[in-house]
Each structure stands twice: as structure tokens, then as C-alpha cells.
Amino acid sequence: MLLHSRQSGSRLRYGRTCLEHPGKETMQVTPFHGSLPGYRLRQTAASFLIMIACLLCSTLAGMLFFHQGLSEDTIILLYVMGVVICTKLTHGAGYGITASFAAVLLFNYFFTIPYNSLAVDDSNYPITFFIMGVTSLIASTITSSEKKSASTARFQAEQANAFYELTRSLRGTVTMEEAEQKIVTCFRQTFGVEVRFASGDKPAESSGFLNGPGNGTSSRKTRFRNWIIAGKEKTYGVLSIPEQQADQLDESQLRLMDSMCQCAALGLEKTDSISRQLEIQEQVVQEHYRSDLLRSISHDLRTPLAGILGTCDMLLETEPEPARRRELIRGILQETAWLYSLVENILSLTRMEEGRLSLHCRPECAEELVEAAIRTVEIRHPDCHIGFEVPADLIMVQADGKLIVQLLVNLLENAIRHTPPDSGMDVELKVDDKENMAVFTVRDEGCGLDPGDLPHLFEPFYTGEKNRMDRGRGTGLGLAICQSIAQAHGGWIRAQNRLDRSGAQFEVGIPLYDDGSPKQGSSLDEPGQTVMESASQ
Asked: Which residues form the Histidine kinase domain (predicted)?
């Protein structure tokens, strides 16, 4: 699944790339223990000082015991204990071995006759020295082995934790960009090195690893080591680390790096599969949406067009009376106005689905918006009766006037379709000080809303089945568009049955305009913001 390395035997190929960048590196990273030269130098110095301290303390304690008249065996045990402590506290088995030989020499120099000399007078001492050295070496080896086992266990725990964090962070990601960012973050936190990820098969040095030229800085070359992350079917990207930092990683860390790259490749492969599935599902939904749209409007387009064609033929072939002629022309006007409204709704819904419907918000007089909507509806439906009580105070809203008029027209025409011919409807405009909203209320005197329809009223293509006194045509798009327009303005829409009498009531809240800035959704004041973007905020 991943390419093989020729240099280190790891399961992932990494290469060197060179790029000349002016400027200085400003990468701030947390050092990975054991991976930076400064840390290793300090570690070596500390281990050497610990070894000297252990031998010195053993010698001083031995001199104290010697002057107290204790036996040489006690002093030998002191040195063995010092070697064990030295092995436990230092890094590497070499310090314990060195301390073992040094302990024998120190015992011979300070505590055997002749004193302060390495010469040996007693023939038994070489055997004593041999046993002391072997004992110290065995104790040092056992301690070093236990320490190595503990270090291995800690490394395995850290490795397991690194794998867990990587897999946990990748779980649930649905976009490749999000997965790549999480991979970079996890590698940076695990190894303490600067990491960059380039999608595709190109190294990441082109993504701006170093800053640009600064005052008094010179140009220099920076090398990078790259790990290619590939799945079964394609290469997902290249993970790049500055070579200066990558060279400080030991073999175990490089193996962990390779294993985590394999895990990252599996995670990217899964994320890519999920992303493709979501795209396919979205395409299916869009295709289903288009089919519903075509099926919904096909009949509604054919019926008024047939009426217009028939009326035009009648006007051309006959000479009707003036009153009859005006009636026929009025019918053509009504059918044309209805078609225009249908096309406007379809275009608005299409733009909203594609995120291309822009808001051009500015201060608008709410009263004028209501009157414009009523005039539009009265032209299309001259027999309808719409009441509107002009508010006493001037109410200003921050809105796209054209879209608000379309919203109100849709609500009024929806009321006309579900209201008996001899009934009326009214529009109320008021201010909700608590929410700082202008509230538009459209009431009708129809049969009201069926409780089963309430949860679905604002779904596209939903027209309801019960208790409908449908005088006209409807595609189920109007209320869905109303909700999108209201939400795009940072407002809301809700529906309920009237409490005072039979009929339905729709309320729409639009933010008020105050001192040249909207109370809510100030970003709506910027032209070009799409309705779908605003609705998602």
C-alpha cells in the first residue's frame, strides 16, 4: 500500500528535496525527547556527572566505614550499590559498565595495601577484584535490562496512544481537507517537528515552508524529507519534514512515523470513500429534486398556456363585444401574471439551491413593502379583498426589498388559494421589541391548517392533502421559498391556526433597521452574500 525505503528499511519511501528560500526559519515546535542534538548533549553530560557522583559517594562512604573499622566486604557492597544506582539513573548501559570497572580500581587504590596505589601485595585480592567486577557487571546488566524493558513499554504505550489519537481524530471526517489538517496536527504533536502536507504527489516545499526575505537575511538552501502517502488506487499526498529535524529522529521514531503514515493513508482512503458516497447521494437527491420539480410544474405550465392560446385564437378569429373583449384580455393578464409568479419562484428556488441568490440589503420601509405586495396580488386577483391597517409609526427594516415583496406575495396567494371567494384576508404589521423584529402577519378566513400538515408546510413540493379548498394551482414551492428568504435575512417564519375564528395565520419576522446598521446579521449588509450562506449562519 505504501512505497518501500531503500535507506532505513522502513515500509515507506522518503526522499530528499532541496529548495532555496531566502529568509530565516521561524518554526516554533515542541522538541521530541531524544530527537534534538542539544537535548542529547545535555543528556550525556548529565549521565556522566551522575556516574561520577555515584562513585564519589561510594568512595566517601567507604572511607567512613573503613575508619570505623568495618570489613572490606561492606565497602565492596557499597560500590556494587553505587553501580546499580548509576545504571538506574543514567541513559545507556555503557555508564554502568564503566562504573563497574572504575569501582574495582577505586577499591584497589583506596582500600587495599599499599594504600593510594594500584599495586597489589596480597595474592587473594585479584580474586576479590574479579568477583567484585563480575558482581557489579551482573547487577548493572540486570538493572539496564529492566530499565530498557520499562522504556520499551513506555514507547509502546506512546505508540499506541499516537495511533489512537490519529484514528480518533480521523473518525467522522467527511472532507479531505479536514482529514489532512488533522493528520498534520497529530504528527506535529507526536514528533515535535514542523510538518506540512501537500495533496497529490508533489512535495510540500512549494507551500511556503519558510518566511520571505527579511532585513539583512541571506538566501540559503533547505532540504526536506518526504513521506509519500498512497492508497490502493491513488496517491493522497506527501508529508514533508525539514531534513535537519528528520535526521534527529531515531530508528524507532522513524518506524513509528512510517506506521502512522500507513494509518493516515487508511484514514484518507476511508474519508475519500465517504466523500465520494456523499457526492453520489447529493447527486441522487438533486436528480430526485429535479424530477419532482418537472413533475410538479408540467401540468401547471400546460394549463395556463393552453388557456392563453385558446383566448388568443378566439380574439383573432372573432370580433367579441368590448366588454367580452376586456374580460378575455383580463383572463390572459391573470394567466400571464400567474406564470410570471411561477417562473420567479422556480428561479428563486434554483438560485437558493445553488447558492447563487444574492441579498442586496438596505433600509426599507415595511409599510411600502406590504403595499407593493398587495398591489401585485390585486392585479393578478382583482376580486380578492385584502385589508391592511397602516401602522401609526414608521417601521424600517434592513432587507432586500424585492425578496421581501416576493415573500409577502407568496403568502397572500397561498391565502387566496385556501380562502372561499366571498371571504377576505388581512395583513398586519407590528414591531416585536423583545426580538427587535418587524413582524408581518397574513391572516385568511379559510378552513385553517390541518395539524398533520404543520410539520411539513415549509418543505419543497408539499401541498397537503386534507381540508384544502384549492381555487387555483399550487406547486408547493411558495412557502419553502418564504422560509429561505426569512432565514437569509436573519429572521423567521411560523404558521398556526387563528384563535379568533376559522383560518390560518402566517407570521414573518425581519430584523429592524437601526441607525444605519441591522440589529442582527450585520454581514447581510454586504452585497453578494448568498441566501444559502446566510441561512446557515
From this structure: 296-514
Give the residue carrying C-alpha cell 599499599. 114
- Alpha-carbon distance of 412 to 286, in angstroms, equals 29
Q: What is the mean pLDDT of residues 262-277?
A: 85
Is the pLDDT score of 366 beyond 70?
yes
Average pLDDT, the chain: 75
Q: Is residue 253 within 8 Å of residue 32, measured between CB atoms?
A: yes
Please list the alpha-helical segments (H only) found in 355-443.
Answer: 366-380, 401-417
Helix, strand, coil percentages (3-state) for the chain, rounded to 5, are 55, 15, 30
The CB density around residue 500, as the number of other CB atoms within 10 Å, is 7
Cα dist from 389 to 369, 371, 407, 442, 444, whole Å: 13, 11, 19, 12, 15
Give the percent of the chain with pLDDT over 70: 77
Residue whose C-alpha cell reads 557522583 in the numeric block: 53
SS3 290: helix
Domain edge (last residue) among 154, 177, 207: 154
Classify residue 393 as exposed, middle or buried by CB count within 10 Å of its CB (0-12, 13-18, 19+).
Answer: exposed
pLDDT band of residue 293 (cuts 50, 70, 90) is: low
One-letter amino acid of 234 = K
Question: End-to-end CA distance of the chain, in Å?
Answer: 41
Q: Does any domain span residue 414? A: yes
> What's the number of domains the chain is made of?
2
The angle at the Cα of 137, spanning 136 to 142, to the nearest 5 degrees, equals: 100
- Cell for 463? 401541498
Instruction: Please compute the mean of the pLDDT values over residues 19-24 and round it to a whole number.
Output: 36
Strands 396-399 and 362-365: antiparallel
On the question of pLDDT at 20 being above 50, the answer is no
Question: pLDDT (tens digit, 9 = 90+) per residue, 147-198?
Answer: 777 777 777 777 788 777 888 878 878 788 888 888 888 888 888 888 888 8
**Which amino acid, 80?**
V
- The pLDDT score that the predictor gives to residue 297 is 64
Cis amide prior to 527 (ω within 30 degrees): no
- Give the pLDDT of residue 215: 34
Its domain, for residue 379, covers 354-535
- Any domain includes 80: yes
Domain end point (choices 130, 154, 178): 154
234 — phi, psi (to 5°)? -160, 165
Is the distance from CB of 239 to CB of 229 less than 8 angstroms? yes
| 496 is a domain residue | yes
Position 20 in a domain: no
Phi, psi at 27, each rounded to 5°: -75, 125
Element (DSSP H or E) covering residue 127: helix 125-170
Q: Residue 77: CB partners within 8 Å, gap ≥ 6?
A: none
Q: What is the pLDDT of residue 161?
A: 80
